[in-house]
Amino acid sequence: MTTDASSQEPSHPFFAAVYDPATALIERTLLRPHREYLVANLEGAVLDLGAGTGAMFPYFAAVESDVTTFHAIEPDPHMRRQAEEQARTHSLDITIDDSPAESLPYRDDTFDVVIASMVFCTIPDVERALSEVSRVLKPGGEFRFFEHVADDGWRGRVQGLLAPLWKRLAGGCHLTRQTASRFAADSTFDIVEVERLHLGVTPIRPFVRGVLRKRA
Fold first, then answer.
1. Cα Rg for the chain, rounded, in angstroms?
2. Who contacts 153 (Cβ-Cβ below 8 Å, separation ≥6)?
3. What is the mean pLDDT of residues 101-109?
4. Phi then psi dihedrals of residue 42, to 5 deg
5. Does the pTM of the predicted model rise above 0.90?
6. If residue 21 lies in a helix (H) or strand (E), which one and from where to where?
7. What mean pLDDT, rounded, does the chain reach?
8. Beta bridge partners of residue 95, listed in sequence order
9. What is the rounded end-to-end Cα distance, in angstroms, of the chain?
10. Confidence band for 12, pLDDT divided at 50, 70 and 90
């Protein structure tokens, strides 16, 4: 287990306050099928890597059973308080830790599934976090993800121009990351599926979703 934190605790009170109202419509419409994709046939010990305000929690509650256990991390205290309220609202039995993705407080080979939903855009050290995901997954375990990534052409140029301001206003979100390529290049995983989705509106476009399986 990595023991040193990668940076000081994130704290974005304004972003946390406006996030749920700002995303309420797209959560009910555009994002719903992709969140359902992440929880399809879910079993075993599950980690939500960066719970945010708890957007995945209603979906966890819908599939919760005697063969699932849920854990989450969320280092931002403002986001974490809202996630805790979301868990209470949905009567979801979930343990939420304040650790960063780069230093997970779990033993090796703990989880059957790790889920990342629009979180790797905000993680300071992507490679280190992905290494931690691999470490805590059991051999044969799944890493399921849904992330927005850098676009091409004029949309990519717009993202590049907006990126510095966007990062300050949107809780540390990076617009220009090639997240799927980084995932696919990790030698500890086999690719089950990766799909690029022409979803969203510039600068939050396109998205990728998929499943990687940890090699035995």
1. 16
2. none
3. 98
4. -80, 130
5. yes
6. helix 13-28
7. 94
8. 71
9. 19
10. confident
Upper half-sphere CA count for residue 166 (Cβ side, 13 Å): 15
Contact by Cβ (8 Å): 117, 146: yes
- What is the number of other CB atoms lying within 10 angstroms of the CB of residue 77? 14
Alpha-carbon distance of 118 to 11, in angstroms, equals 17
Structure tokens at 33: 């099928």
Which residue reads 């140029």 in tokens? 157
Model confidence over 133-167: pLDDT tens digits? 999 999 999 999 999 999 999 999 999 999 999 99
Q: Name the amino acid, one letter, at 1.
A: M
H/E element holding 96?
Answer: strand 94-97
Cα–Cα nearest to 124, from 103, 143, 150, 107: 103
**Owner of token pair 């407080």:** 105
Please state, in angstroms and rounded to a whole number, the distance separating the CA atoms of residues 164 and 111: 35
pLDDT band at 8 (very low <50, low <70, confident <90, very high): low
The pLDDT confidence band at residue 1, using thresholds 50, 70 and 90, is very low
Residues near 139 by Cβ (< 8 Å), separated by ≥ 6?
A: 109, 214, 215, 216
CB 169, CB 15: distance < 8 Å: yes
